[in-house]
Amino acid sequence: MSDNKPVVRMDAPAPEGLEGEGFFATKLSSVIGLARSYSLWPLPFATSCCGIEFMAFLNPTYDGSRFGMERNSFSPRQADMLMVCGTISKKLAPILKQVYTQMAEPKWVIAVGACASSGGIFDTYSVLQGIDKIIPVDVYVPGCPPRPEQIIEGVMQVQELSQSESLRRRDLPEYKALLDSYGIE
Ligand code: SF4
User: Fold this and answer.
1) Does residue 13 surpass a pLDDT of 90?
2) Pocket test for ligand 1, best of 49, 117, 141, 150 (most atoms within 8 A of CB)
3) Quick one: pLDDT at residue 29?
4) Residue 46, pLDDT above cutoff 90
5) Atom of ligand 1 nearest to the CA of 49
6) Which has fewest Cβ within 10 Å: 21, 42, 126, 137?
7) Ligand 1 interacting residues, C-beta cut-off 6 A
8) How far is the CA of 29 from the centre of ligand 1 (A)?
């Protein structure tokens, strides 16, 4: 078992901008990106063993709350980061897609573990071979199961994405085309 301890960061960097005595100026999009990235509301869609690693990620040792994810949501309308942890059967796939479509923009998706990313060891007729067959995925976390540190890494990548993406990204034709390719309006 690894004895690597997660690093506690208490110093979220300020966005790039102009600083002077008594003032700081930056872009509105940078401030909104910073706020979004440190107030993610995850929706755990946990179906099997990877869900246990997600629970470990939230426990006091790894403490997912350090990332501003204090509030887990089990309601798609009050969540902006879908974390799919576990095997998704083809029968369950429409439910997952419905959950995704009920989430408000902007939203991000993490495929946690081999099953969510690619079907994992279950190369069978009944298992979806990766959730990206039905919804767009932003970050893939490898492993069977991934360790909580890897889930943390995945969350930090979503934080980077949410900080760097343009406020208008969701209005871009490329994004709409991506959703169209999944049959999502
Ligand atoms: S990736 Fe491995 S640990 Fe995770 S749900 Fe699949 S079989 Fe279980």
Assistant:
1) no
2) 49
3) 86
4) yes
5) 8
6) 21
7) 48-50, 86-87, 113-115, 120, 144-145
8) 37
Q: Which atom of ligand 1 is nearest to the CA of 144?
A: 2
pLDDT tens digits, one per residue of 53-85:
999 999 999 998 888 887 889 999 999 999 999
- State the DSSP H helix or E strand holding residue 180, giving kind and residue range, or none if neither: helix 173-181
Q: Ligand 1 centroid vs 136 CA: distance in angstroms? A: 20
Query: Do 35 and 159 contact (CB within 8 A), yes or no?
Result: no
Ligand 1, atom 3: nearest CA belongs to which residue? Answer: 145
Secondary structure E strands in the chain: 17-20, 23-26, 42-46, 81-85, 108-112, 139-141
Query: In whole angstroms, what is the distance from residue 129 CA to residue 137 CA?
Result: 13
- pTM here is 0.88
pLDDT at 11: 66
